[in-house]
From TrEMBL:
Belongs to the CarB family. It catalyses: hydrogencarbonate + L-glutamine + 2 ATP + H2O = carbamoyl phosphate + L-glutamate + 2 ADP + phosphate + 2 H(+); hydrogencarbonate + NH4(+) + 2 ATP = carbamoyl phosphate + 2 ADP + phosphate + 2 H(+). This is Carbamoyl phosphate synthase large subunit. InterPro entries: ATP-grasp, ATP_grasp_subdomain_1, CarbamoylP_synth_lsu_oligo_sf, CPAse_ATP-bd, CPSase_dom, CPSase_lsu, CPSase_lsu_oligo, CPSase_preATP-grasp. The lineage of its organism: Bacteria, Pseudomonadati, Bacteroidota, Sphingobacteriia, Sphingobacteriales.
């Protein structure tokens, strides 16, 4: 059936700010769906309150509404835009809950709006735990024994009937919020109370816990002809008991028998058909008994999910794009295959490679948090890696994590305490994967590890093979490693740094030169979705070690954009937004744009966003070889946050051109000593400071600059390790801990300007002219990280003199640092005097916010300035803000109830929203200012 021509305008509901459990995978899905519908001539409107995402950019939709995600906001848009249909499946749980609430209030019926992509009834069937359980029983799909409970008494009765261990699953929550395991009777009351409170309907499912069973997911698509295809099978490395968002996952499934897989497929299709007649996508989760292959259904989500983004990047099949076309009436066989361009979308992808996803946690930001993993998701991001084998992909994923690892171990960061290792195997946390390897290296038998972790033996045997290869490598020196063995090491994912470490007294560069001399170099394979059965048109590549290279460089001038890697606190989706604009600006300026990134949730890793995508770790060895193959004009590091900036020194040392501000000038801004010398030379005030390499030196410096002092490491993002101290004793503790966590770092000690106001400026410089992008005033005082502060644009209480100083200092610093591109400066204002706290010549967290508030494409402008194709005078910049815009930080404290909520110099927020007010009399602002300004009186 061709598309439904009665649908002329569609509203896509976004997911709002990034929180743990609902991250930028919905930014990716929503953006892809909007572009897909625009292709069909449909007018697309988006509602989303998140300013940091590309989804809320004008290049994505015809109309973007940066409004609070409420039914009232939605109703206003329905009237204003005369919306025909709403697509709620691209915005996660937030969008589905809003869709359901609007249905209950009669909003869709009142305005004649159709819900597409899902049946509202399907939402109820899947979110209500009892409805889902009963439906599965009715259609003959197995489920774990369970009972619903709406009260404490009902919960106790259910527990008595089913028996321990139990799992408590609240209805209508995201990321496993409020859920948990109960192993014994004494733990039950507290767990039940938590679950009932977490559910908006005060309802939980008390279910038999199938701990140790294997967990799988299938991604499905269905059209209006009831054709269903399975896009991808995903296997959890971790057994049941850990939230799938916190699990290492592998695609395709590795340890699934063919008969079990066929049974699972049939059950998934039956489940999707049973929940409604909608056309679109869904995700189904199963558990399998490892002893007899019995299958039970865990849940079904009638929307795109975190796994949909992963499956799209894993297969090259754009699930959200196709799902949105199915939602407006097309059938699968009527849609073009986006990869081959010659076949239809009615096919199931075939993978001739292995995908590994590893989550990224930020427990270091949540002091006192319980780091043990369970039913409630705690990770803040994830990485994906592609390899020809499981071990190659696994090692590449470890290199992508941005935690200083060179692969899976073999880098000097192993744990040698057998007690800590065995405890970590039994109580899984962020490092269990590494502890498994450490245990094997210390001789712990594979079977002992399997019994404790319940991880499938096949996976453990793969890791054990790495340990055996390491032992064998130690028999050689760099000059006598046999070529075949060297080649095998690289095929198993060992980085040059790991090989150098294992050989001892050898550098990474020496290993690299040696393997080059042996002719062992990376080749690049295309992600083609069909195992090379059909010719692919999409330039989407991963590296491996084989003979044939499928990535043939063109003769065009090329620009490489380095991505920001996994989302984490302090470095979020705003940097991916910046990278996307960097790619678009490069294309518009006549360059071939090349993206290197490893985050499956993001728009920058969509296969049609760049001219060429390398889904690879932003890790020196990988970046280096892509540069050698492609020979770009230069590399953009300004847009990818600290991940990309960390590459700047290596690029500089190897004579590779950095687009925009030079490495030396960026380093001046990072090096507190050099930067303060520059400020002194420019006659710009700054807090007194000193640098120390140990606690004794720190105490001397602190007494010279005067307490209170701000203690921090150099070269970090998101305020990592920062603290404010008021005496020698506290300072000594802070410095010892900081140097223990970040060995080899230096400690910066600044006099802390107590009760000062904090302000920020963002600007663009082309080497001559400076354009002030925006000045912001924080509601919280200095001492609370800028990412955790409410920022108001333009300032609401600063004097003209202070704002003039901020502008003057911004321009002076931009010119003195020879900035070409973006510059963010943070100030402290005390007694009308403006002090410079720090300057960052790169994309910041606040530029996307300012760009959305003023409706100016600032990153695009900055990228064209960096590329040297335009000067600032070439742009006509008109701002459109009436009143004020407020950047509101959003936290995920519900995941860590044990963590103090007090804010300080180390960032804790996971995302942000934008809110517009007409004037300072707005009740929202008055209350906000009254509440927050209480900080000043403390």
């Amino acid at each position: 059936m061709p598309k439904d021509t009665s649908i002329r305008s569609v509203l896509i509901i976004g997911s709002g700010p990034i929180i743990i459990g609902q991250a930028c995978e919905f930014d990716y899905s929503g953006s892809q769906a909007a572009l897909s519908l625009k292709e069909e001539g449909i007018e697309v409107s988006i509602i989303n309150s998140n300013p940091a995402t590309i989804m809320t950019d004008k290049i994505i939709a015809d109309h973007v509404y940066l409004r609070p995600l409420t039914v009232d906001s939605i109703e206003q848009i329905l009237i204003e835009r005369k919306i025909d249909a709403v697509l709620p499946t691209m915005g996660g749980q937030t969008a589905l809950n809003l869709c359901k609430e609007a249905e209950e209030r009669g909003v869709w019926e009142k305005h004649g709006v159709r819900v597409i992509g899902v049946d509202v009834a399907a939402i109820e069937k899947t979110e209500n735990r009892e409805s889902f359980r009963q439906l599965m029983v009715d259609i003959g799909v197995g489920v774990a024994p369970s009972k619903i409970a709406n009260s404490f008494l009902e919960g106790k009765e259910a527990a008595q009937e089913i028996g321990y261990p139990l799992v408590i699953r609240p209805s209508y929550t995201l990321g496993g919020s409020g859920g948990g395991f109960v192993h014994k009777k004494e733990e039950f009351d507290a767990a039940l109370k938590r679950g009932l409170e977490a559910s908006p309907t005060h309802e939980v499912l008390v279910e038999k816990a199938v701990l140790g069973w294997k967990e799988y997911e299938l991604e499905l698509l269905r059209d209006s002809n009831d054709n269903v295809i399975i896009i991808c099978s995903i296997e959890n490395f971790d057994p049941m008991g850990i939230h799938t968002g916190d699990s290492i996952t592998v695609a395709p499934a590795m340890t699934l028998s063919d008969s079990c897989y066929q049974d699972m497929r049939n059950q998934a299709i039956k489940m999707m058909r049973a929940i409604g007649t909608f056309a679109g996508g869904c995700n189904v989760q199963f558990s399998v008994n490892p002893d007899n292959d019995d299958i039970i259904a865990i849940e079904i989500n009638p929307r795109v999910s975190r796994s949909s983004a992963l499956a799209s990047k894993a297969t090259g099949y754009p699930i959200a794009k196709i799902a949105s076309k199915l939602a407006i009436g097309y059938n699968l066989d009527e849609i073009e295959n986006q990869i081959t361009k010659t076949t239809s979308a009615y096919f199931e992808p075939t993978l001739d490679y292995v995908i590994v996803k590893v989550p990224r946690w930020n427990f270091d930001k949540f002091k006192g948090a319980n780091p043990e993993l369970g039913l409630q998701m705690k990770s803040v991001g994830e990485v994906m890696a592609i390899g020809r084998s499981f071990t190659e992909a696994l090692q590449k994923a470890c290199q992508s994590l941005e935690i200083g690892r060179a692969g899976l171990g073999a880098d000097g960061k192993h744990n040698r305490s057998i007690e800590e290792i065995m405890h970590g195997l039994e109580h899984p946390s962020w490092n269990r994967l590494f502890l498994i390897k450490d245990a094997m290296s210390m001789g712990v038998p594979l079977e002992s590890i399997r019994k404790v972790t319940r991880i499938d033996k096949w996976f453990l045997a793969q890791i054990q093979e790495l340990v055996q290869l390491e032992t064998e490598l130690k028999r050689y020196s760099l000059t006598n490693i046999p070529k075949e063995f060297f080649f095998n090491l690289k095929q198993k994912g060992f980085s040059d740094i790991q090989i150098a470490y294992l050989l001892g007294n050898v550098t990474e560069d020496e290993v690299y030169d040696r393997r080059k001399s042996l002719g062992i170099r990376r080749v690049y394979k295309m992600v083609d979705t069909c195992a090379a059965e059909f010719a692919a048109q999409t330039p989407y590549y991963y590296s491996t070690f084989e003979e044939e290279n499928e990535s043939v460089p063109s003769d065009k001038k090329k620009i490489i954009v380095l991505g920001s890697g996994p989302n984490r606190i302090g470095q979020g989706i705003e940097f991916d937004y910046s990278c996307v604009h960097g790619l678009l600006a490069a294309k518009e300026s006549g360059f071939e744009s090349i993206m290197i990134n490893c985050n499956p949730e993001t728009v920058s890793t969509d296969f049609n966003m760049a001219d060429k995508l390398y889904f690879e770790p932003v890790f020196w060895e990988h970046v280096r070889e892509i540069i050698e193959l492609e020979n770009p004009v230069g590399v953009i590091v300004q847009l990818g946050g600290q991940t990309a900036l960390k590459m700047a020194e290596k690029l500089h040392e190897n004579g590779i051109k950095i687009i925009g501000t030079s490495y030396n000038d960026m380093d001046i801004a990072e090096d507190r000593g050099r930067f303060s010398d520059l400020l002194k030379e420019l006659d710009i005030p700054y807090p007194k400071y000193g640098v120390a390499e140990n606690a004794e030196e720190a105490i001397v410096v602190a007494n010279e600059v005067g307490y209170p002092v701000l203690v921090r490491p150099s070269y970090v993002l998101g305020g990592q390790g920062m603290s404010i101290v008021i005496n020698d004793e506290d300072l000594e503790k802070a410095v010892v801990k900081l140097l223990g966590d970040l060995p080899g770092n230096r400690v910066l000690i600044d006099h802390f300007l107590d009760r000062a106001e904090e302000t920020e400026s963002d600007s663009i410089c082309d080497g001559e002219d400076v354009h002030i992008v925006g000045l912001m005033e924080h509601i919280e005082p200095a001492g609370i990280h800028s990412g955790d502060s409410f920022a108001v644009l333009p300032p609401f209480s600063l004097s003209a003199k202070v704002m003039e100083s901020m502008e003057t200092y911004s321009k002076k610093i931009a010119r003195a640092l020879n900035v070409i591109g973006l510059l963010n400066i943070q100030f402290a204002v005390k007694d009308e005097k403006v002090y410079v706290i720090e300057a960052n010549p790169r994309a910041s967290r606040t530029v996307p916010f300012i760009a959305k508030a003023y409706d100016v494409p600032y990153i695009n402008i900055a990228a064209k300035v960096m590329l040297g194709v335009n000067k600032l005078k070439d742009f006509k910049i008109e701002r459109k803000l009436e009143g004020y815009a407020i950047k509101e930080p959003v936290f995920s404290y519900d995941k860590f109830p044990e963590v103090p909520k007090e804010l300080g110099p180390e960032m804790k927020s996971t995302g942000e929203s934008i809110r517009f007010i007409k004037d300072l009399e707005d009740p929202y602002f008055r209350k906000l200012y009254k509440d927050k300004s209480m900080y000043l009186s403390k």
